[in-house]
Amino acid sequence: MQQAAKHLAVRRNTIGEWLRRYREGGLEGLLEVGQSGAPSGARDIPTPVLAALKARLQEPEGFASYGEVQRWLEDEYGLRIPYGTVYRTVRERLRAKLKRPRPRHEKKDEADEAEFVARLEQRLGTVQAFSALDKKPLPLRLFFQDETRLGLHLPLHRCLTAAGVKPYQAINPVYEYYWLYAAVEPSTGQACWLEMPGLNSDDFEAFLQHFSQEYPESLNLMILDGASAHWAHHLEVPDNVLLLPLPPYCPELNPVERLWQDLKGRLKVAQASVRTSLNALRDHVAELIRQYTPRQLASLTGYPYIINAIETITHKLSKTERCQVVVRRWGISLGRAFFAHSLDHPEILIFRCREVFHRIIGQPVTVGYGEVVESADQHLQGNPIKLDA
Q: Which of 174, 204, 243, 302 could form a Cys-Cys staple with 152, CB 3.0–4.6 A?
C-alpha cells in the first residue's frame, strides 16, 4: 500500500479509503464522487447571528452549557452548527466560559443598588464637609468591610489532569471553623485583618476597636452589609469610625466579597494538614494574607464606581467650598445669623447636623460633633454663606 501511494503521489490513508469503498460498493462505490465541502450543517456562524450571540452572552442569565447555545442557534435562526464550532466560537472567539452563578435574592431592588452607586460621591462629600468643621479635622478614608467563615469542611476545587484521568481528593468532614474579618481601602489596598471565634456584636465591636487603633489619624467611613451584628443597639463605635450600610441583598457592591473568592481559591484544599487541623488552616490562611501586596488588594477591590467617587472628592479645593457644597446640596440655612443664634442655642445646629447625617447615610451619627457650632462660627467670620431659599 505504501508503494502504491508513493507511485500515485497520494497518502496511504487515501489508498485505504479507496479500498474500503471498493470492498463495500464494488466498482460503482469506488467511482462515486462525493459532495465537496462540509457535511450537513454550517461550519461557521454568520456575522449578524454572531453579534446576536455576543449580546445574549452579555446577559447575566447566560446559557447552561455549550449544547444549549447549539440548540438556541437552531431554534432562533434555524442553524445546525456542529458542537465543536459552537465551542470554539464561544470559548476562544467570544472569550466566554462556563461560570458558577452567584445566588441572587429575589427581594433585591435594582433601584436601591443604582441609587447607592450614584450617591456614593455625594455621601462622601457630605461627610468630608461636616468633618471639616471640627477644630482638628481628620482626613477622610473609605473602607469596605466584610467577614467570612473558614473551616475544615473545605470545598472541592477543579483539578487539571490528563485525558482519561479522573481526579480524586480524600475528604474527612470536620466541622471546626473560625471567622476572618477584613476591612480594605480600595484606593490604596491598605487592609486590616482579624481572626475571631464567631460573628456577633461583641466580636464585631472588638474588630472595630482594633481597626480604629490601626488608623487613628483619619476619619474612617466603613461601608458594610446589614448583618444584625453590625447594627446592634448596644454596639459602641469608635469616634473615628462612621458606619454606612449597603443596600439590602447587594453583596456584589462590596469588593471584599471578591477578595474572599480570591483567597479561598488559593487554599491548598488537597493538603492533608490543612483539612485536618484548624491551627494548620489558620497558619496557611495567615501566610496567604501576608503574600497579598497593597497593589494586589487595590486591584481586587478597586471597583470603578468606588474609585471614581474617591477621585472626585479628593479634587475638592478648600474647606469653604466643601461647606458650600453640602449646604447647597441639602438646603440647610447656615448663614451667619443662624450661627450667631446657635451660639446661644447650640443644640439647634447639632440637632440639624445629626438630622442631615441620619437622612444621608441612613443611620444615627456615630462620631462626635460637639464643637461643630464654634468651629463653624470661627470659620465663617467675615465670610458668610449666602443661600437661595
A: 174
